[in-house]
Design goal:
Mean pLDDT: 76
Structural class: alpha+beta
CATH architecture of one domain: 3-Layer(aba) Sandwich
CATH topology of one domain: Beta-lactamase
Helix content: 40-55%
Strand content: 15-25%
Length: about 375
């Protein structure tokens, strides 16, 4: 009874405590539930910083263009031509292409109506000499030219001028001339079949100088000219001016010096002068010639192989070669009943100049060269 009374008295103050404890416990549980709910919700929506950054970059790459992409897009937008109206094809053209399209078409013949042009071009391309000049002497029409406006070394073609000066000097052609040590080539060290001490007439010396391009013979002719070699060279340059060879220069009579220079047009004038002098015509077109040297007979031959061909009618001819000049050939030939001057300079290969001369004659015979039209290609 006492226990119940004691218990009853304590219940009065214990009940509020229990209520407070239970309330706090419930609040704590509710708060815990709320915190767990918030935490769980954040874990489903909030990623780690690295994951979030990766996702943001991926999203950015799919929604916003990179600077390079934007620059390319802007450039394309600026250069692209506007789209034409409906029914018209869209056409994009760069400024360079637009400018090119504005240029008028050339007057070059089309492939389907070119006619004989391909054959002509093939013939011209077959000429291998660096300098080519072909002129009809009857009409002065230039039939074909390549690099004709150049001044070049002419090697032994010089001997044509040596002959013109000598013939015009009216010297005694039967006078005996001796080859001396002064006539030996100390520039190019070329060989000669005329040994020192050989004695020949002036006419024979001129014959061998022109036909066989004998350097010692040409040197002896200049050395024995009245006043010596210096006077002879002065006469050569004076004759060049007289013939209208304004772009030609001579320093010695053989052509061994590369300082002897001329142009194709000047050389045509020189050949015209040579043709009009019978002795030069005869000596340059002789196939072979015999002379007695050192007590024996020696046969000299023409350096132009075309001279011996019966189907060629050559009026004057001269070959030449030194390293600086290349292989050279000039001649006047009768083609289609007309005198035609041919100048070939700076060819490579010993037979190139001969092959070019043959091809040129064929072109003239087939009338594949254009009259009075230089540089036809």
């Amino acid at each position: 009874m006492i226990f119940l009374s004691h218990f009853s008295s304590r219940r009065t103050w214990l009940a509020p405590v229990l209520c407070l404890t239970l309330g706090l416990s419930g609040f704590q549980a509710s708060a815990q539930d709320t915190i767990e709910s918030i935490t769980n919700g954040a874990s489903t929506t909030k990623k780690s910083p690295a994951a979030t950054q990766t996702k943001q970059k991926a999203a950015a790459s799919t929604t916003a263009p990179s600077p390079a992409t934007k620059k390319k897009t802007d450039s394309t937008a600026k250069t692209a031509a506007p789209v034409k109206k409906t029914g018209q094809a869209t056409k994009t053209q760069s400024p360079a292409a637009s400018k090119a399209a504005a240029v008028k078409p050339s007057n070059a013949p089309r492939a389907h109506n070119a006619g004989a042009v391909p054959a002509k071009v093939a013939s011209y391309a077959a000429l291998r000499s660096n300098v080519v000049y072909v002129q009809d002497l009857s009409s002065n029409a230039v039939l074909y030219s390549r690099n004709d406006d150049v001044t070049r070394p002419i090697a032994s073609i010089t001997k044509l001028m040596t002959a013109v000066v000598l013939v015009d000097a009216n010297l005694n052609m039967n006078e005996i001339i001796e080859v001396t040590q002064d006539d030996v080539d100390v520039v190019k060290h070329s060989r000669s079949r005329l040994s020192v001490g050989t004695k020949l007439s002036r006419a024979d010396m001129l014959h061998l100088a022109l036909m066989s391009s004998e350097n010692r013979a040409a040197s002896a002719l200049g050395r024995t000219y009245p006043g010596g070699t210096a006077a002879f060279v002065s006469a050569m340059n004076a004759k060049a001016q007289e013939l209208g060879m304004d772009r030609s220069q001579f320093v010695e009579p053989t052509g061994l010096s590369s300082a002897n220079v001329s142009t194709p047009r000047d050389l045509v004038k020189l050949m015209q002068a040579a043709v009009s002098r019978p002795a030069i015509h005869r000596y340059t077109t002789d196939d072979q010639y015999e002379v007695r040297t050192s007590g024996r007979t020696t046969i000299f031959r023409n350096t132009n192989a075309l001279i011996s061909k019966p189907d060629w009618d050559i009026k004057v001819s001269k070959t030449g070669y030194i390293n600086e000049a290349g292989q050279c050939l000039v001649m006047v030939a009768r083609i289609n009943n007309r005198d035609t001057a041919i100048v070939l300079l700076n060819a490579e290969g010993k037979f190139t100049r001969i092959g070019d001369a043959v091809r040129i004659r064929q072109m003239v015979q087939r009338q594949e060269v254009a009259s009075a039209t230089p540089n036809v290609l």
